[in-house]
Design goal:
The complex is a heterotrimer of chains A (527), B (310) and C (360).
Chain A lengths: L18 E12 L2 E12 L3 E5 L6 H8 L7 E6 L2 E2 L5 H7 L1 E4 L11 H6 L10 H14 L15 H14 L4 E5 L7 H16 L3 E6 L2 H7 L2 E6 L2 E6 L1 H6 L2 H13 L25 E8 L6 E8 L4 E5 L6 H9 L6 E6 L2 E2 L5 H7 L1 E4 L3 H5 L6 H4 L11 E2 L2 E2 L1 H14 L16 H13 L5 E5 L7 H16 L3 E5 L3 H7 L2 E6 L2 E7 L4 H10 L4
Parallel strand pairs in A: 3-8, 3-9, 6-7, 7-8, 13-20, 13-21, 16-19, 19-20
Antiparallel strand pairs in A: 1-2, 1-4, 4-5, 9-10, 11-12, 11-14, 14-15, 17-18, 21-22
Helix pairs in contact in A: 4-5, 7-9, 15-16
Chain B lengths: L5 H30 L7 H19 L2 H25 L4 H24 L12 E2 L9 H5 L1 E2 L1 H19 L1 H11 L1 H6 L4 H28 L10 H12 L3 H23 L6 H19 L19
Antiparallel strand pairs in B: 1-2
Chain C lengths: L1 H45 L4 H14 L1 H26 L7 H19 L5 H19 L1 H10 L3 H23 L30 H18 L1 H11 L1 H6 L4 H28 L10 H11 L4 H25 L4 H28 L1
The chains are: A alpha/beta (527), B mainly alpha (310), C mainly alpha (360).
């Protein structure tokens, strides 16, 4: 913030293309918060402009104003130097702004071609063959291969994303927004997307790349703008980016993002090995586990987790991690293999029986399956103990016991809530996560599965959650930590298993060079 | 067997057309609406609106054609309330649907009472279009090819809708509005406009079906005369899963069962109509029991679309 | 000591909050009612009828005259049972739209067999058996959609609607072909003697079905809000994935919900027979369920509020019959009022949600 240089302060403005979109003092308020506070920003042709910021920094709001989904409350938007509102998605498309959202915006029940023709005049007949040809050409131009006649629902997320970028080009986009586009991609695919962005920029397109990952920002960006708490706190110009090496640039950006000095180095932080007792019997043991009912079938999963140990499971999202967690917790059927917890087979047990044995599962789908949004948080704390004493006696609710439990958990887990009767859906993501942690970690937990435990949380809550995970292991439980953030896994886990397409590709000790080995396993170099 | 006399067969086949056409129109309308993501429980009310206004205008203008236009208008009138409340304002589709059905039942019965309680007018028979040659086929000819123009129109709608769904951008837009409205929105098309169009078109089709019942079927308007036809239309649409041809087949099946009772009476066999009326439901329930899992509905069916909410 | 005071302030706070939320609910429920009466009044004016005298007749008959209020209260019995049936289902997220068939099937079997038993057993036993029969058959009729939903994931709106048509026809068939009273030429079941019917209350003509209805709806309200079983059902209704995640036996609970809902609807039919009608005539279908669905929505699935709306509906329907004779406005007008009422409710809900969002 202090030594930040703004894009306007660039050295030779004359050599740069004029901005396609200019934000002047753009402000967007939601009840209770200012999502974007007086943002000044320019987006130029021929540049990959990275918008960097944590969750809740205001990136999504900015994107939704660029793509016409939301309107600013204050400030001006200039298109090619002329003030002009972007009042709807159709408006944005007319200007040449195309957005590839984090969640696919293709209709799964239509083919790629049909998706590409969506939005044309209704009375026209879709020219499938012609569009398919155009799509192929556009795809080839940017080095992507796709089958235009394929049904969207059958494609992987990476393929859908490529199709969306291709579609944007076909529409004559000159301004492409990629919103958290790498979140769902493998490292290889992400790198490929990075190259693609740079190629597009070289062809004269304006590319806006939204991310919260520092390394990607530095690697692919020509210009970086950093958002924090709704404000633009600074950035790096193309000249600065060119003159700095990657480490210096990263340090600069970290200072802007967190207002702290120096980068957090993932490698410096190592878990404490002393809590692990590998001489004891393993708490959890998986024997040749198969499950084929889910979207990603699991095959031949085998590992052990000892008391006090954190086993990290690394991998790109959607490679069977969710299925593994569900199979262990008892939510999804196991087709073959066995699961042993403290010497007992639990694979035939119900969810409730497994929980009684000490199996706990902190889901990442906090509102989707973790809680009932309209119910008071006091009830959500007991969702997995309905009917159990002392909260229910002879099937009857004991309101005082329920309230007492809620008050205690609010204290112990520092849950910020207006009242214990507040519907949990109204709490912030961090506080919902605290409710889940309180629920899963209470009682005698033997195995705790944390699935993407810090996803979508702010810094303070990330730190608090990671401390809880460490403490859980220190208390002697076996911990399985599923995460897509490699830094988090390296900071917390004793061993790391790499998961790919429903299989464990390998398990590595968290020692020097672990990052490299994991990368190799993820990209399929090692068999 | 003497049961299958010519008179019986003609009565049966003619009956299929008579009782199947309103079901067909209701099913096609509901299908259109559901495709775009609006579960339209109010079509019974739209049908009554069409039946009443169609009858009233046919009686007042002494023109059957204008009567049908009025029927379409009556359906659209009720549907526009559905569009306003459920598409524009995003209110609960089931509640509004039931409210519209109850309200239309009451309103049409009331209007009928106020206007016709002492008159009981009856419309003249509707003239038919005789299709040359085909109408000369024994039995099937007079029953199917010497009918009111609306019958041909209703059947012609089936291939037309197939074409619209498969071959036009409108069809793609409707499907997107029902499956992933956000995708349609981000492609620059207004989801609410598409859904409003779907609901109003549904009202038009269903209203026409209602007008068929009052103008062609009965020749009079009777309070509550649609008698669950709209609800059967909902069932047909849900079973047909977006395929107009299946609605046609379903409407024919239900129509056959409904007309069989009358035809049997013509043939002198006395079976309670209820038994015959149960048959299509029994058949469909058995089909559902055997192949249940596959009754797939649009992903966003019943959910109001609000931009920016996932 | 300090904890004592803390709990006390806590409880007064809660009491105040409860009072506030109750007055909020009252406002949200009565606002639409008032608006609906005003709009219906305007329609009456258009029809050249003085709305005040119309509603004067309605409430004069339905609420204020002794015979009228007795009829109103008697009609409430089966309606309350239907409301209880719907509250169980709707709170568990299950759209049971087949209540009319469940009602009729319960009524028909009850009317078929109770008159045969009645002469041979004490009155109370006959009544108990009759009620049990109606509940069991109503429940059975709900089981097909139950299994299809629980184990095949089939949308219950289609299946309950189908079973509704099927059941209405089936009930007619049973009356006409199987349970026909051989002693009359009218197609109807045997008639339960007046002495063998549910007793009336305190020397009035009010059927004790009212008491059964009240017990049922209060019981259901208590079950849904205060018991572990009710909470499990509400979890299934509130978020089915969360129910799976929490280890609830969702399919089993789904079947249980359908069975309870169907049994209550069937019992409603039984109470109508045992208390009022004594027999079922062919093609009889009072359509209570379709009428009560909106009332239950109006009450926001709250048992107490449902009692109020059922009472209002009974007054309107009993009173409208009398008002029809005096003003020439047929009682179809009640349907219009109910339709408007529902729309007003939905609109008030819409603005309520909007206000809440703005405040959050």
């Amino acid at each position: 913030m202090l030594d930040a240089s703004t894009p306007e302060h660039s050295a030779q403005p004359s050599t740069e293309a004029p901005p396609i979109v200019t934000f002047e003092g753009v402000t967007k308020r939601y009840p209770g918060i200012i999502a974007n506070d007086s943002i000044d920003m320019e987006f130029r042709a021929g540049e990959v402009h990275v918008l960097l910021g944590e969750n809740g920094a205001g990136k999504s709001t900015l994107v939704s104003m660029l793509s016409g989904l939301q309107q600013p409350d204050d400030g001006r938007i200039l298109i090619d130097g002329v003030e002009k509102p972007i009042s709807s998605p159709a408006d944005a498309l007319d200007i040449g702004i195309s957005t590839v959202f984090q969640h696919s915006m293709l209709v799964p029940s239509l083919t790629l071609v049909e998706n590409a023709t969506l939005g044309r005049k209704w009375w026209q007949a879709p020219d499938r063959a012609g569009t398919a040809g155009a799509m192929k050409t556009a795809a080839e131009r940017i080095g992507v291969t796709l089958d235009p006649m394929a049904l969207t629902g059958d494609l992987s997320l990476g393929e859908r994303q490529q199709a969306e970028i291709t579609r944007a080009l076909m529409r004559g986009a000159r301004f492409l927004i990629l919103d958290e586009a790498t979140a769902m991609l493998t490292p290889n695919d992400a790198a490929r997307l990075g190259e693609l962005m740079q190629r597009l920029a070289a062809e004269g397109m304006a590319v806006v790349f939204i991310t919260h990952k520092l390394n990607e920002a530095v690697a692919y960006g020509d210009r970086i703008s950093v958002l924090r708490l709704g404000k633009k706190v600074g950035g790096l110009t193309p000249e600065e980016l060119k003159s700095l090496d990657a480490q210096e640039a990263t340090n600069q950006v970290v200072r802007l993002m967190f207002g702290t000095q120096g980068a957090q180095s993932g490698d410096a932080e190592r878990p404490d090995m002393s809590t692990v007792d590998r001489d004891a019997k393993p708490t959890l043991e998986l024997l040749a586990l198969y499950a084929d009912s889910g979207r990603v079938p699991l095959s031949n999963i085998e590992f052990k987790v000892w008391p006090g140990e954190i086993l990290g499971i690394a991998g790109i999202d959607g490679n069977g991690q969710k299925q593994l967690a569900a199979a262990l917790a008892g939510q999804a059927p196991i087709s073959d293999g066995r699961v042993v917890l403290d010497g007992d087979y639990i694979d035939r047990m119900s969810i409730g029986q497994r929980r009684a044995k000490g199996m706990r599962y902190v889901t990442d789908d906090r509102l989707g399956e973790g809680t009932v949004g309209t119910f008071p948080m006091s009830i959500n704390l007991l969702l997995k103990e309905i009917g159990e004493a002392p909260f229910w006696r002879s099937g009857l609710e004991q309101p005082e016991a329920i309230r007492e439990n809620a008050r205690r958990q609010v204290r112990d887990y520092d849950i910020r809530t207006p009242s214990i009767e507040t519907p949990i859906g109204k709490l912030s993501g961090g506080n919902i996560q605290k409710v889940l942690l309180a629920r899963e970690l209470s009682g005698s937990a033997r195995v705790v599965i944390f699935e993407k435990p810090t996803y979508g949380l702010d810094l303070a809550n990330i730190a608090a959650t990671q401390t809880r995970i460490r403490e859980t292991a220190q208390s002697g439980a076996a911990v399985i930590l599923i995460s897509t953030e490699l830094d988090e896994i390296l900071a917390l886990s004793h061993r790391i298993a790499v998961m790919d397409q429903g299989e464990i590709k390998g398990i590595v000790e968290n020692t020097d060079g672990a990052r490299h080995k994991i990368g190799e396993l993820m990209s399929g170099v090692k068999k | 067997m003497t049961l299958f006399t010519d008179t019986f067969l003609i009565a049966l086949i003619a009956g299929i057309a008579a009782s199947g056409v309103p079901l067909l129109l209701a099913g096609l309308g509901e299908q259109l609406s559901e495709k775009a993501g609006v579960l339209n429980v109010g079509i019974e009310g739209m049908m009554l609106g069409g039946a009443y206004l169609g009858f009233y205008i046919a009686w007042a203008t002494e023109s059957t054609a204008l009567g049908f236009v009025g029927g379409i208008g009556g359906g659209i009138l009720v549907a526009s309330l559905m569009a306003l409340f459920c598409v524009r304002m995003g209110l609960n589709q089931i509640v509004i649907g039931i409210a519209l059905t109850l309200g239309a039942e009451g309103a049409t019965a009331l209007l009928h009472h106020v206007q016709f309680s002492r008159l009981y007018p009856r419309l003249p028979d509707v003239s038919t279009w005789r299709i040359p040659f085909l109408a000369d086929i024994p039995i099937v000819g007079p029953a199917l090819f010497d009918r009111e123009p609306v019958v041909y129109l209703a059947i012609a709608l089936v291939p037309i809708l197939v074409y619209v769904y498969r071959r036009t951008h409108l069809g793609l837009a409707l499907q997107a509005a029902g499956d992933k409205p956000a995708a349609l929105d981000s492609a620059g098309q207004n989801v609410l406009v598409i859904r409003t169009f779907a609901v109003l078109s549904c009202g038009a089709l269903v209203g026409l079906g209602g007008a068929f019942m009052s103008i062609v079927g009965a020749g009079v308007f009777v309070p509550f005369m649609t008698h669950g036809n709209g609800f059967i239309g909902i069932v047909l649409a849900m079973l047909a899963r977006g395929r107009p041809l299946w609605v046609l087949l379903g409407a024919a099946l239900f129509g056959a069962c409904l007309s069989a009772a009358t035809a049997l009476q013509v043939a002198g066999v006395d079976i309670p109509t209820d038994v015959v009326q149960m048959l299509p439901f029994v058949a469909v329930m058995i089909v559902l029991l055997l192949a249940g899992r596959n009754a797939k509905l649009p992903a966003a069916l019943g959910a109001a679309y609000v931009r920016g909410e996932r | 000591m300090s904890t004592q005071t803390m709990t006390e302030t806590g409880s007064t706070d809660r009491f105040r909050a409860k009072l506030q939320s109750m007055s909020g609910v009252l406002l949200m429920s009565l606002g639409p009612v008032v608006a609906a009466f005003i709009l219906s009044g305007i329609i009456l004016l258009i029809l050249d009828v003085n709305p005040f005298s119309y509603y004067g007749y309605v409430f004069g008959r339905g609420l204020l005259s002794p015979t009228g209020v007795q009829a109103t209260l008697t009609r409430m019995g089966p309606l309350l049972l239907i409301a209880a049936a719907l509250i169980v289902a709707f709170r568990a997220g299950i759209w049971n739209l087949g209540g009319d068939a469940q009602f009729l099937i319960g009524a028909v079997f009850c009317a078929a067999w109770t008159p045969l038993m009645a002469p041979h057993v004490p009155v109370w036993l006959g009544l108990l058996a009759g009620a049990a029969i109606s509940a069991v058959f109503g429940g059975i009729w709900a089981l097909v959609p139950a299994f299809l939903r629980a184990y095949q994931g089939l949308n219950e709106i289609i299946t309950t609607l189908m079973m509704n048509f099927l059941g209405i026809s089936f009930a007619s068939v049973l009356v006409k072909l199987v349970f026909l009273d051989p002693t009359t030429t009218v197609p109807q079941t045997r008639t339960l003697a007046v002495d063998d019917r549910l007793p009336t209350l305190f020397g009035t003509t009010i059927s004790s079905g009212l008491v059964i209805g009240l017990i049922a709806i209060l019981g259901v309200h208590f079950m849904m809000t205060r018991t572990a079983f009710g909470l499990r059902l509400r979890v299934v209704g509130g978020n089915a994935s969360a129910a799976v995640h929490a280890g609830l036996a969702v399919p089993l609970l789904t079947v249980a919900v359908f069975a309870i809902s169907g049994a209550l609807a069937g019992l409603s039919g039984g109470v109508a027979i045992l208390g009022q009608y004594g027999n079922v005539r062919a093609d009889w279908n009072p359509g209570y369920s379709l009428a009560v669905v909106p009332l239950v929505f109006l009450a926001r699935f709250n048992g107490f509020a449902a009692i109020g709306f059922v009472a209002l509906f009974s007054i309107l329907s009993i009173g409208a019959e009398s008002a029809a004779r005096r003003t020439g406005i047929p009682n179809y007008f009640t349907l219009v009022t109910i339709g408007i009422l529902l729309v007003m409710l939905a609109i008030s809900e819409y603005y309520g949600a909007k206000r809440q969002k703005a405040g959050a």
